[in-house]
Amino acid sequence: MHVLSRTLWVLLVPVLVVFAAPFVWQVTTGDTFMSVTGVSMEPTYRVGDVLVVQDPTGHDLAVVGQPVVVEFTPGDAGTQYVHRVHEITADGAVLKGDDNEVPDPVTVTEQDVVGTPRAVLAGDLGTLYRVSQSWGARGVVGLLVLGLALLPTGPRPAPSPDAAPTGRRAMRAAAGG
Known about the structure:
Blueprint: H1 2-29, E1 32-35, E2 50-54, E3 67-71, E4 80-88, E5 93-96, E6 107-108, E7 113-121, H2 124-132, H3 135-150, H4 167-174
Antiparallel strand pairs: 1-2, 2-7, 3-4, 3-7, 4-5, 5-6
Helix pairs in contact: 1-3
C-alpha cells in the first residue's frame, strides 16, 4: 500500500502544480487570463488560445500595432476582445483584428483598455489551462487528494509475539481453538 500511495502522490503533485500555477501567477503579477473565442486575430491568436493579460499602463493606445484587450461594457468580461491599434486619433485609437479586412467602427479610449497580452498559452497549453480551471477537473483532483490523504502512509506494524490476540485470533482463542 505504501508503494501505491507514494506512486499516486508522485503522479498527483505535477497535476496540483498545473492547477495552482495560474492562481499563483495571478496573485503574484496581477495578470488575468482571457480565452480567445473568435477568429478576428488569426493567425496571431486562435480560438482556444489563452492570453495572459497584464494591467493597462495608461499609454497602451500610443503605439500602432500594439495588441490591446478592451471591453465594450466596463466590468463585463464577456464583452472583452483583443485587437491591434490600427490608427491613433485625437480621441483614442481605432482598432483592427489581424484577420479583419476593415478597422473596427468605434474609436476606443484608454478607459476601455483592460490590458495588453503578456503571453499566449496556445494549443495544448491553452487546453490544459481551461481544463485546470473547470469545476469538474478541480473536483476530481480534490477527491484524489482527499483519498490519498486518507490512505495509510506506511507499512502496517507486525504484531508483537507477546501481544494479546486480536480479531479472528482472539475469537478462536476465546472459543478454545
